[in-house]
Specification:
alpha+beta, seven-stranded mixed β-sheet, disordered C terminus, 28% helix, 203 residues, 5 helices, single chain, 7 strands
């Protein structure tokens, strides 16, 4: 079963979502934002989001989380097992491998290198939480080059383009052997080349 907690390093914190009415309202509002509607395709009413969060929370192979940055709501994350997901046919996953879906829900926090810093910390955390995992995977929409750059900068290499039921995705993966050491000040460093990330924060 996916853990009910993610022990992320400061300045991040994660809270498991269980499908309360308030959580359903939050997700419905966040996913109704144009930039997330274009990449997640889950513009659902609060009741459906509550049902979905409850289903994910009770699943043995997936877990939904709210991520905060310095106490401010930052992102929605779904952690899952690739072997039991829509990307299962495209690689020989082990039963311990992990994957994630990420949506940065506060657009005011984009363009500051936080996406890359968070993905880097999340990958390290997932490997630490699952010692037998060999890879961590993600599959951003191919039409979202900014998020694909975030994956590359965080050490997740492009594997191939795949057709999923709801999108064409750029499959990325990071093997345990390539996980990067933690920076001294996660989230503060500028991306490579000193350029801010493009403002399209749905992964």
């Amino acid at each position: 079963m996916i853990a009910d907690r993610l022990d992320l390093p400061t300045p991040w914190a994660a809270r498991s979502l269980s499908g309360t009415a308030e959580e359903g309202r939050l997700l419905s509002r966040w996913m109704g934002q144009e930039y997330l509607a274009e990449t997640w395709h889950q513009v659902w009413p609060p009741e459906r989001w509550s049902d979905e969060l409850r289903r994910l929370h009770e699943s043995r192979e997936c877990g939904p989380f709210l991520i905060t940055y310095e106490g401010r709501r930052f992102a929605y994350v779904e952690v899952h097992r690739p072997l039991h997901s829509s990307i299962a046919p495209f690689q020989p996953w082990s039963r311990h491998d992990l994957g994630f879906h990420l949506a940065i829900v506060d657009r005011a926090l984009t363009g500051r290198g936080l996406g890359t810093a968070f993905v880097s910390d999340l990958v390290r955390t997932l490997f630490r939480c699952s010692p037998e995992a060999e890879r961590v995977a993600a599959e951003p929409d191919v039409r979202n080059p900014a998020c694909r750059r975030v994956m590359e900068r965080a050490g997740m290499s492009w594997v191939r383009t795949v057709r999923l039921p709801h999108k064409e995705a750029a499959l990325h993966a990071c093997p345990r052997s390539r996980v990067r050491p933690a920076p001294e000040r996660p989230g503060d460093a500028a991306p490579p080349g000193g350029r801010p990330e493009a403002r399209h924060p749905a992964v």
